[in-house]
Amino acid sequence: MKPFHSYQNPSLAIDLVVFGYQQRTLSVLLLNRNEMPFKDTWTLPGAFLQMDERFKDTCSRVLKTKLGMDNVYLEQLYSFDEPERDPRGRVIAIAHYALINPKNFAITAGSMANDVQWFDIHQMPELGFDHQEIFTQALQRLRSKILYFPVGFELLDDLFTMPELHELYECILDTTIDRRNFRRKILDAQYIINTGKKREGLQNRHPDLYKFNKKLPKNAFQLNIN
Amino acid sequence: MKPFHSYQNPSLAIDLVVFGYQQRTLSVLLLNRNEMPFKDTWTLPGAFLQMDERFKDTCSRVLKTKLGMDNVYLEQLYSFDEPERDPRGRVIAIAHYALINPKNFAITAGSMANDVQWFDIHQMPELGFDHQEIFTQALQRLRSKILYFPVGFELLDDLFTMPELHELYECILDTTIDRRNFRRKILDAQYIINTGKKREGLQNRHPDLYKFNKKLPKNAFQLNIN
DNA sequence: TAACTTTGTGTCAAATCAACGCAAAGAAGC
DNA sequence: GCTTCTTTGCGTTGATTTGACACAAAGTTA
């Protein structure tokens, strides 16, 4: 085995794919770099891992200091090792993705500098580094994960209606899903609980308000949407 | 952003969960350490990432030089960041898993030093570092992946029979699977192709020989074994 | 040749799924 | 008020898939 201490360790970066959902649109948070390399190019937010940090600490630091977000759902995605991925030298990226609830979405959308911006996932600019590939993998992961684990709720308020949930799934999966079959399956899967309350407001029939089921049974399963 | 060059980067290790299959037994390759820390303790094989290496290069180097294996199926698993996971200092581990075909299994099983050994996954010793957790995750990944992707073939010879494949799945998933339903599903999924040949030998009825379908249709799917 | 093991193929009732109908609740227009 | 329209909740039905078996063909053993 090689000597343990080495001044030749690659740098370790954490890159973040931050997803938000509002107005029937799935969006990603991008950052316009103000320094070389890739100056004036949109990229994923990120930072270098500090010696005493765990991955999620670095994620939280980025989300907090750069974007003013707290209490965010985080998941490790994949590690990227292409030697030429950063022109400055060898940088390994440990990519994560984050799901932002509407409260955080609204705060950041209002107060952000113009070098930080939400982009509809269908209308993204070209990205610097290998961030296009990282983004693509993150979206793929989100799409497959939502089919077997109740992860979408992180993108909604605590209380939500069935049509809202239905639209979220259609939006993430980018398909149409039969409203009535979706309802039956998501209820069978026990992902959500009917609170008994109803959403009052402008709509026609007032829809029931649901919440995420925090202790969902062990035998959770494939949703198999349509 | 922090300064780019830093002498304080964590070390980067690649750890490998090497799976092999023979005699209806799923096994893992372990290494008995001959130096501190964890001297005389069984651990997963691994090495530190060199500056010019991609992850898979490091994997191949370990497999080749320590274990004499070539042409191995490799997949990145997960990255482990617990600051105390290595008593020598901060070491990030990028875990991978490997699937070894019987040819390589036989070679290594015969020629290995006694500090390298295959262990039935049901009869493993205690592992050093956080390798027990890494192993557990690898096994979990293999078990879920085999349900939606034809990955098991990496553990078999190029030609194999239906009963052999059936036993492999039972062994990996650690359940019993109805022989006839398994057959129907694996054929429906178009994972394999009947070569027309038959395995001659000691057995009773000579079973058909199949091969892995290398261009399997895009619409690949959940197997949903029993 | 008979008994037994192993492998390939088929059957069938039960469960699941996709497609769709319909009525209740509320809004909008008259 | 009354009618019409939209939205939401709840069912139904026919087709498909699934799990549990039966059975026959191929080979071995005695």
Q: Class by helix and strand content of chain A?
A: alpha+beta
In terms of quaternary structure, the protein is homodimer
Protein chains sharing the most extensive interface: A-B, 33 and 32 residues
Q: Helix and strand string of chain A, N-terminal first? A: EEEEHEEHEHEHHEE
What's the CATH C level of the largest domain in chain A? Answer: Alpha Beta
Organism (chains A, B): Chitinophaga oryziterrae
Protein name (chains A, B): NUDIX domain-containing protein
Domain NrtR DNA-binding winged helix (chains A, B): 152-212
Domain Nudix hydrolase (chains A, B): 12-133
Describe the structure.
Chain A has 226 residues and is α+β, with helices and mostly antiparallel strands. The first copy, chain A, folds into 2 domains: 11-145, Nucleoside Triphosphate Pyrophosphohydrolase; 159-212, Winged helix-like DNA-binding domain superfamily/Winged helix DNA-binding domain (Arc Repressor Mutant, subunit A), CATH 1.10.10. Chain A is 27% helix and 27% strand. The first copy, chain A, has helices at 55-67, 102-111, 131-145, 162-173, 179-188, and strands spanning 11-22, 25-32, 42-43, 46-48, 73-80, 91-100, 116-120, 160-161, 192-198, 208-212. In chain A, strands 1, 2, 3, 4, 5, 6 and 7 form a 7-stranded mixed beta sheet that branches. The radius of gyration of chain A is 20 Å and the shape is elongated. The termini of chain A are far apart. Residues 1-6 of chain A have low confidence and may be disordered. The A-B interface holds A 1-2, 4-12, 35, 47-52, 54-55, 76, 78-79, 81-83, 88-90, 92, 94, 222, 224 and B 1-2, 4-12, 35, 47-52, 54-55, 76, 78-79, 81-83, 88-90, 92, 94, 222. The first copy, chain A, binds a DNA duplex (30 and 30 nucleotides) through residues 161-163, 178-181, 183-185, 202-208, 224, 226.
